[in-house]
Design goal:
Mean pLDDT: 77
Largest sheet: 4 strands, antiparallel
CATH class: Alpha Beta
CATH superfamily: Periplasmic binding protein-like II
Number of helices: 2
Order of helices and strands: EEHEHEEE
Distance between the termini: 9 Å
CATH architecture: 3-Layer(aba) Sandwich
Number of strands: 6
Strand content: 25-35%
Radius of gyration: 13 Å
CATH topology: D-Maltodextrin-Binding Protein, domain 2
Number of domains: 1
Helix content: 10-25%
């Protein structure tokens, strides 16, 4: 069993495509919100993208997942968070996309 990650953004600023992450590395994309270096989530994202040509450049770095969710809800950008960080019944202000290319997840310990 794994704990998947997903891309989130406000309804006014949806991810670039259905897989969520492909558009994050575009040079003209200036709205990526990242988690701080040193966090387990950031390590997983960096590792998943290490051998790819795309590398998201963030305009903002936050220490905690709830901060990233709040900034995305406010329409300030797009980020990647654990699926479990989002309410199971949905969120009326956010668009969520599963990451499939590459899939980013962490196994249950």
């Amino acid at each position: 069993m794994v704990r998947p990650r997903q891309a989130i953004s406000s309804l006014s600023r949806p991810p670039a495509d259905r897989t969520g992450i492909n558009g994050l590395g575009r040079p003209d994309r200036a709205d990526y919100i990242s988690l701080a270096q040193g966090s387990g989530n950031r390590f997983l994202i960096d590792q998943a993208l290490a051998n790819r040509d795309i590398r998201p450049r963030s305009f903002c770095e936050v220490k905690h997942v709830p901060e990233l969710v709040s900034l995305a809800e406010a329409g300030l950008g797009v980020g990647v968070v654990p699926k479990l960080a989002m309410p199971a019944d949905g969120n009326a202000t956010l668009v969520k996309r599963s990451l499939t290319n590459p899939a980013i997840s962490r196994p249950w310990d």
